[in-house]
Amino acid sequence: MTATTAPYAATPARASRPPSARLRAWATRAPLLPALVFMIVVTQLPFVATVVISFFDWNALYPKARHFTGVDNYRQVLTDPDLRHSVWTTVLLTVTVVLVSLVLGLALALLLDNRFRGRGIVRTLLIAPFLVVPVAAALLWKHVLYNPEYGLLNGLLHYVGGPQPDWISNTPLLAVEAALVWQWTPFMMLILLAGLQSRDPEQIEAARVDGAGEWQIFRHLTLPHLRRYLELGALLGCIYIVQNFDAVFTITSGGLGTANLPYTVYQSFYQAHENGLASAAGVLVVIGSIIIATFALRVVSSLFREEASRA
Amino acid sequence: MSSLALRVRKHRGLSIGLVAWLAGIVFFFPIAWMALTSFHSEADAAANPPSFGAALTLDGYREFFGAGGGASPWPALINSAVASIVSTLFVLVLAFPAAYALSIRRVRKWTDVLFFFLSTKMLPVVAGLLPIYLFAKNTGMLDNIWFLVVLYTSMNLPIAVWMMQSFLAEVPVAVIEAAQIDGARLPTILWRVVAPIALPGIAATALICFIFSWNELLFARVLTGVVAETAPVFLTGFITSQGLFLAKVCAASLVVSLPVLAAGFAAQDKLVQGLSLGAVK
């Protein structure tokens, strides 16, 4: 619901500019400036520094040997099989987690869009996984669920006489993905549920009166309406999961081929002290994110404009 | 509507309810199991097949809080509380006037400014991590909780600006104009007029910023050590198994997650709006 009371009338007319207009413009800007300056200093300057460092051969253990190498670091990042593998892992991890949690989230949102006894409680139960501290959630999956000897999964398999696999060693990436899907499905569900509840009930009732079946209503009314929300969920999910560090760090410690780019960047400067390489990898993560973010910004701004025009 | 159609609908409603409950229980089950395990003795916790009805004990919690001679989690919990609460306060102080300038008395090109804030959120943390680390190292700010406070402020400021501008846009302009006619200055207007009206939104914003700061691991892991270690960093001590410690891990995970669970349920209604950066209401 958008119960907005004409906030757009507040912009002062700018037709004529008396001498004090400039002063007034600064007075309008003043409340914004601290936040803006703070953001530029804390987020933009370090990134510029990263770009600069990425052109240097710089190992922190041999600071004297630091020298400019041009795009060598990038060449090395892009040709190093381990790093290339981590690019692939990042893509695979992100796409799998986002798609699966989006589909599950849609199913759950459709369920919760109905009226039934205890709906509020079910909603709360479903949100809970998202509200477990990410490290704690990863520990829960690693030790409590996956452990081959005393984990719950094998414990339950024990009852039916099933096999006792070592989940993390057998399917390391899948193990990380499952834990992330569990945490991110509630997020998708919340966004999609908000989308479902913003549908026009009269339109659906009209379609029903006209004899449309449930599937037809879903296919031709609900799904097109949800498109924006699906896009938004997918893109926000991508932005957060591309950056995921906690689950990879906790469940596999980047081993068994699960090291994604954030973990690789962390490792290459925190453990291997390769500052130049780490920066080049970091810049590549940013380029990947910018591609996603361009779409994301477009979706957010179209939703934003829609809200604004409705208001 | 015919009675048959009504019955079919009712039947359908019942089965949807059942499926939804089942899904809810499946998703919640790992948390419930974690809670149950945290109250079991280590021997029962490691039993396979699992022991649902084993005797309950607080040993896991005693162990976690350092009764067995391990490191006490209190310094880490206090660090996390300081970093989360103080950075959230900073965020509110910076974001509230900014949101005013982006929603009520608007600057020119206010949408561009809003999208600048949003775009910083899309810059991955790893992009600036190394220079931030080097800066902290060279200025002696490594292992200092106040350095984390500054970083967490920058991490949450865009979210807060977006959320708050959508909340402040709902404040009636007439009220503000009336205050201006009465000669009230900007700080007074913000504090006495806008803040009380937008209070529920501000509270939700604060809770969401608190959650993100409390959860954060990468910055804390890289920039803190023994002194300024936060609760998530403390939890990483449990990554490698150390014999029988399942009950202790469960107790630890639950204790560290409690503030987030509490804040999340308190902000439930506004959670979507915050997580979608204000795009969805």
Your description of this structure?
The complex is a heterodimer of chains A (311) and B (281). With 311 residues, chain A is mainly alpha-helical. Chain A is 71% helix and 1% strand. Chain A has a single domain, classed as MetI-like fold (Orthogonal Bundle), CATH 1.10.3720.10. The termini of chain A are close together. In chain A, 43% of the residues are buried. By secondary structure, chain B is mainly α. Chain B has two domains: 62 residues, no CATH class; 202 residues, Orthogonal Bundle (MetI-like fold). Chain B is built from 14 helices and no strands. Chain B is flat, with a radius of gyration of 24 Å. The two termini of chain B are 35 Å apart. At the A-B interface, helix 1, helix 2, helix 4, helix 5 and helix 6 of A face helix 1, helix 4, helix 5, helix 6 and helix 7 of B.
User: Which stretches of chain A are poorly predicted, pLDDT < 50 over at least 5 residues?
Assistant: 1-15
Which superfamily, in CATH terms, is the homologous superfamily of chain A?
A: MetI-like
What is the architecture of the largest domain in chain B at the second tier of CATH? Orthogonal Bundle
The level-1 CATH class of the largest domain in chain B: Mainly Alpha
CATH topology value of the largest domain in chain B: MetI-like fold
The CATH architecture of chain A would be Orthogonal Bundle
Total beta strands of chain B: 0
Radius of gyration of chain B: 24 Å
Radius of gyration of chain A: 25 Å
CATH class of chain A: Mainly Alpha
Shape of chain A: flat
Beta-strand portion of chain B reads under 5%
Structural class based on helices, strands and sheet pairing of chain B: mainly alpha
Average pLDDT number of chain A? 83
**Averaged pLDDT of chain B, please?**
86
What level of helicity do the residues of chain A show? Answer: over 70%
- Summarize the helix and strand pattern of chain B as letters: HHHHHHHHHHHHHH
Assembly category? heterodimer
N-to-C SSE string of chain A, H for helix and E for strand: HHEEHHHHHHHHHHHH
